[in-house]
Design goal:
Blueprint (H helix, E strand, L loop, with lengths): L13 E15 L5 E9 L2 E8 L3 H6 L5 E11 L2 E11 L19 H13 L4 H13 L1 H4 L15 H19 L5 H10 L4 H4 E3 L5 E4 L1 H5 L2 H15 L4 H13 L15 H24 L26 H7 L1
Parallel strand pairs: 3-5
Antiparallel strand pairs: 1-2, 1-4, 2-3, 4-5, 6-7
Amino acid sequence: MDCIPINEFELNAKIEGFYLIKSLKCKTSSNNSKFMDFLLSDKTGEINAKLWNCSEDDEAKYVQNTLVKVRGVVGEWQNQLQLKIEKIRLSTAADDIDAADFVQTAPYNAEYMYNQLLDYTSKINNHDIRMIVSHILKDHKQKLMTFPAAMKNHHAIRSGLLYHIMTMLMTAEKLSEIYTFINTDLLFGGVILHDIAKIYEMDANDLGMVSEYTCEGQLLGHIIQAIKMIETTAKKLNADTEISVLLQHMILSHHYEPEFGSPKKPMFPEAELLHYIDLIDSRMYDMKKALENISEGSFSDRIWSLENRKVYKYSLYDENEEKSLA
């Protein structure tokens, strides 16, 4: 039986192949029997999977970020495909399988995206901002090449942090053509640095998969960690104090609300714009992802990052295209 990509799973299909355990939990059903709740993934997507009546040996054997061979049947639960696992085992060396081939990755090459960030950095005219951004980028290149932008939700894929920053920079550049009073030096600098400390907030492997949040990440969070990075770098480079404070304020305020980690709201236009560019980019990513595995005319599950909203997949075709086919 061929290994079927997750994005090609169909209802009632019999599945056998290798997939990565992205997350798992041991739960108890209504009849008091134990089962394992998996989130399996490959390059094309992810699917919830259940192993019913699991044993203590199963609980100990299967862990996050490991490759497994699975046999099962695709079912449906609450309008979403779900895999019922009939048989599962860990991958072995004899399988000759590379886990990297099963990891969801940003749609652009990491080296290309990193160079795009450097290109935008070169467009920053202010010497101090350019030097701070350039120094931080070059010091953290190795981690940036594979790091995701989150443990779950938006851009939680290999090289997802670079992808998130790059698309935000593209949006920032277009918006600055409309709002011409915007200082693009500050805006580009803020975009590049706003999530940079996630490389210290989360513990991720070379596959871009996060196992947990670091101790410092849990105690401080990436906003405070980034502020420390900027302040330390600015002092090291003898940069202007106000420049350093402006960049720090952009990072401090980009989540907008205290409950999301921002004790201050944006106090100048570039900081305000950074918040909304980040919001647009993260929400568009999550909406696109939600639509990928549902059929036209259907709603997705409720998405936590979208304030528990469902997303609707409409059927709307280009009239001119339809006429040309007629």
